[in-house]
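Incident log, structure service

09:12 report received: a user says their structure output differs between two submissions of the same chain.
09:20 pulled the input from the user's history:
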Amino acid sequence: MAAFTDMTLLTDLYPSLAQVQPAPDAPAAGLVPFEAPANTVLFSEHAACQGFPLVLSGEIKVSRSSGDGRSLELYRVVPGELCLVSSACLFRAQPLSASGITTKPSTLMLIPPELFKRWLENPAFRNDVLGLFAERMADLTCLIDAVAFHKLDRRLAAALLGRGQQLHVTHQTLADELGTVREIVTRLLRQFEREGWVSLGREQIQIVNGAALRALVSTQPV
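09:34 re-ran on a clean worker, output below:
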């Protein structure tokens, strides 16, 4: 297989990679981008980490699952960002603590564990990875706060906002994102509909009163 050749794209997204050795486009690195359709499972919870993913286009959703089949989204990785779960797994040589799946057609590059460790010897790349921990910890702290202290109706309202007026999404998908069960989401959506905030259809939700949803989101927890 040919080595990766579009170094400009890679260093535009991840500038610190311009300083690592071997360089991503060097034959010794042996890196080859690959295409992943939407809903491709890139890594699974409790499995061994096969490498460190770099996103060139598209998006990865990282989530944890419960024993009853529910899942909770932790964060998403877009071009130029790094995956906390993968790096933590490689640092500690332990199984992955979450799963990663593409949300849209994506182009990725998988950095083998040994190459990742060599790149960590470079201060710029190491600082990027350590900076990632700080950023993602802030994200996860906000998530913990939302799960622990915010009422589910506020979290659902927040999940509806920012997706446009017409949402093509199932109640189960929303339940998975919120870490709850479909029946509760359905009950809350019907409540929103009675209030005149949304209109419900088959696998779609029409935002009727976005201002009311935003007001609910901004309500302070009691």
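09:41 both user submissions now match this output. Likely a transient worker issue. Closing.
09:42 reviewer note: The chain has a mean pLDDT of 87. The beta strands are 34-36, 41-43, 52-57, 60-65, 71-77, 99-102, 106-111, 166-167, 198-201, 204-207.
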